[in-house]
Amino acid sequence: MIYKYLKLHITYAYLHSFAAKSKWADIGWRNIVDWKSVNFDWNRARAFLVAAEEGSLSAAAKALGMAQSTLGRQVAALEDELSVTLFERVGKGLELTESGLELLHHVKAMGEAAGQFSLKASGHSTSLEGKVCITVTPTIAVYFLGPILKKLKLAEPGITIELVSTNDTSDLKRREADIAIRNFRPPQPDLIAKRLPDTHAYLYIQKKYLEEFGPIQSASDLKKFNFIGFQENSRYIMGLQELGIDTTGFNFVFTSNDHLAHWEMVKSGLGVGINLEKLCSKDTSVTRVPFCPKPFVAENWLVTHKELKTNLKIRKVFDFLATELSSAFT
Fold it and tell me: What is the CATH number of domain 130-197+299-329?
């Protein structure tokens, strides 16, 4: 990990930033640094930072990809190094002490410096070998990316892909991923975003389930069918209402935060659900629900960090995905 080598670089960047904003900028900031006093281990400071942000040792260890016992030893060693108590153990969680809260402000600045250092270093890479991490929703990961990634591997055999399939939004600025495929334009100005073609979705129902309960002759007939929703259902219901479908009395008897599970429940005849028209047009087990004349329109954006756009392998994957997904979505 690049953090292993960042102690002096991070401290340099942090102190330089401090000095540039203070009176020391006029007299030469290097004269105020006593390098012999900078004697803590950055890996231990990073363990403290992540533990504070995650709220427990187990969550922090998972975020850093290390054993909980190792992370706990790093935090304890930092406390010994600094001769302060950073945390109080409260049940299974952690609570910052007054000293820990005060020091957290400074170690956050160091973490940001570490991230910027890593991004700058990555941005100057000219190699077409190595790993690129892509984060994407499970639906796109399963139904679209397989053939695209196979084609990419044939074109660039030196590039390996780590695919993170999740509905959560990964933080590109913190290097949780290199490239993201999202359904919204990122608000951060330092992210590069390319608009891809929109995708359209409709309501679908298993044909046997429709035959069992009779035809749908009006929008009100939808109330006699079960609906499959999501754990966060308000946006889905709002979308139905915007299409002129009154959801009062709808039976959302099955919910899931996984759209793949949602769709399998539709195909099994458990209820009415939603999916992309592109994926359902060839599925003979389902049919589109009448009285939903307009589609649900989903935006699609390809996103990366502006520093990573100068990295050759990131740029290669980004441009490749832009071309292939544009074709796949239309």
Answer: 3.40.190.10
